């Protein structure tokens, strides 16, 4: 497709055939931020969770999301588009639930984005301190501007950037993992007790799953790029399975390697003694100080890649709502040259900027408040929305007869739903630990997500009364 053909085409259609399997996988894995998830999140899972069983917890989460993906990818062959979860829930449960799910997804991805901007600013300020002293929020806003510019371009442009960042951060972790293997492990040698049931299901598994499940946020974004994908009927399912498999195998292998370095008996107390130094000590020992310096730099690029991925995801949610008539129609416009939802990008960048300003004015710490609070909100939100999607998948295939078997249409989605609800219960039960706060604001997050969903459903029902024609058309743009 030429730039001219895009310019001459409809103003409410995203650029067709602009991304392939590799680009979509880059977006999803970059959103998972491998280096940030492994180096930043898993030390807490080791320290407060099931210790040496963390690699096995990643395997459990991978199985859960593989089960979720069975019905998710099957349904993507029948409904799709930039609306993603909104589209699935609308077609499966109904339009009020779909609008409620869309608003919950917007809150979830917005929370992730704000969290990452805070963490990016913190790391960048620390890295640049020897050269120039700047508040963390200066770097956060600098990242916001660059991310916004990238988001205005064709999706393949962002995909190329994400690909480079992802390969670099995976490479440094693989060097560490392979170095540990080549060194023959640590004081206890090699072993696979991290995957044994007794180790995995040890006390603390629930706490570990809080951090582990959070590391998968964003994998479902494959469906969002359905309109821009080459041969989406095949590309989207393949991208989903590849992304989940890559995330699971890589995280399980990396955490298993670090267990070998410290030893299964020592890994938990070592993590408790120093969360920040947990991986850097191993990197210094195995690869040398140069690698730790590189890892610090790649942590920053990992965060940038993550926020760029979620920016593009959010753009397409706002675009979907605009095209559906649920928000300003202007949000449904695409760029005449790049085929990107550029107006939606302007709005959501502005929202992110406003929220950041509010945190700054409140004097919030970028890690203990901005990152920790927003991450907790995001984990709750994504699990609720994914649970709704699982219900939608089951109901959709009961209404629409297809060639799929009972495993695809009922059993796998039901098992996925049970796992998601269990994970949600664990997250809520360990919310104070996940957020690092006993604040009433944090404790209200589960109720806030439900309230947002109810507001969306109520809004849809009001549309049904006031604008029946608009209500009847909801979801039609994605059929």
From TrEMBL:
The keyword RNA-binding does not apply. Keywords: Membrane, Transmembrane, Transmembrane helix. This is Amino acid transporter. It comes from Peteryoungia aggregata LMG 23059. The chain crosses the membrane at residues 21-48, 54-76, 97-128, 134-150, 157-180, 200-219, 239-259, 297-319, 340-364, 370-397, 409-433, 445-463. It is a multi-pass membrane protein. Its main location: membrane. It is found in: Membrane. Residues 23-431 form the Amino acid permease/ SLC12A domain. InterPro entries: AA-permease/SLC12A_dom, APC_superfamily.
């Amino acid at each position: 497709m030429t730039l001219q053909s895009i310019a001459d085409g409809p103003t409410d259609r995203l650029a067709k055939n602009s991304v392939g399997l590799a680009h979509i996988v880059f977006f999803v894995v970059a959103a998972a931020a491998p280096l940030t998830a492994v180096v930043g999140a898993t030390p807490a899972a080791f320290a407060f969770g099931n210790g040496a069983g963390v690699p096995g917890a990643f395997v459990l989460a991978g199985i859960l999301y593989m089960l979720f993906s069975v019905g998710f990818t099957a349904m993507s062959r029948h409904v799709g588009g930039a609306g993603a979860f909104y589209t699935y829930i609308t077609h499966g449960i109904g339009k009020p639930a779909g609008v409620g799910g869309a608003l919950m997804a917007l809150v979830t991805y917005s929370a992730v984005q704000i969290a990452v901007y805070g963490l990016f600013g913190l790391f960048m300020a620390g890295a640049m301190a020897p050269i120039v002293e700047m508040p963390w929020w200066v770097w956060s806003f600098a990242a916001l501007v660059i991310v916004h510019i990238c988001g205005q371009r064709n999706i393949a442009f962002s995909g190329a950037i994400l690909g480079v960042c992802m390969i670099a951060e995976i490479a440094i972790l693989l060097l560490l993992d392979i170095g540990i293997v080549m060194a023959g492990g640590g004081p206890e040698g090699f072993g696979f007790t991290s995957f044994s049931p007794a180790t995995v299901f040890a006390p603390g598994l629930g706490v570990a799953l809080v951090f582990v499940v959070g590391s998968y946020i964003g994998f479902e974004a494959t469906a969002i790029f359905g309109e821009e994908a080459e041969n989406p009927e095949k590309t989207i399912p393949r991208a989903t399975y590849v992304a989940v498999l890559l995330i699971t195998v890589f995280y399980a292998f990396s955490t298993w390697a670090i267990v070998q370095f410290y030893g299964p008996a020592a890994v938990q107390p070592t993590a408790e003694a120093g969360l920040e130094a947990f991986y850097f000590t191993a990197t210094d020992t195995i690869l040398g100080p140069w690698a730790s310096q590189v890892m610090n730099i790649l942590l920053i690029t990992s965060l940038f890649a993550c926020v760029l991925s979620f920016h593009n995801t959010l753009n397409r949610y706002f675009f979907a709502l605009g095209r559906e008539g649920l928000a300003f129609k202007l949000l449904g416009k695409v760029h005449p040259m790049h085929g990107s939802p550029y107006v939606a990008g302007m709005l959501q960048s502005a929202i992110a900027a406003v929220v950041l300003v509010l945190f700054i004015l409140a004097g919030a710490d970028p890690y203990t408040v901005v990152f920790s609070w927003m991450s907790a909100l995001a984990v709750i939100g994504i699990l609720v929305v994914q649970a709704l999607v699982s219900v939608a998948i089951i109901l959709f295939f009961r209404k629409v007869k297809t060639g799929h078997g009972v495993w695809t249409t009922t059993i796998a989605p039901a098992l996925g739903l049970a796992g998601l609800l269990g994970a949600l219960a664990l997250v809520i039960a360990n919310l104070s630990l996940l957020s690092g706060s006993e604040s009433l604001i944090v404790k209200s997050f589960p109720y806030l997500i439900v309230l947002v969903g109810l507001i969306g459903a109520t809004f849809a029902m009001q549309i049904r009364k006031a604008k029946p024609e608009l209500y009847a058309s909801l979801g039609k743009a994605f059929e």
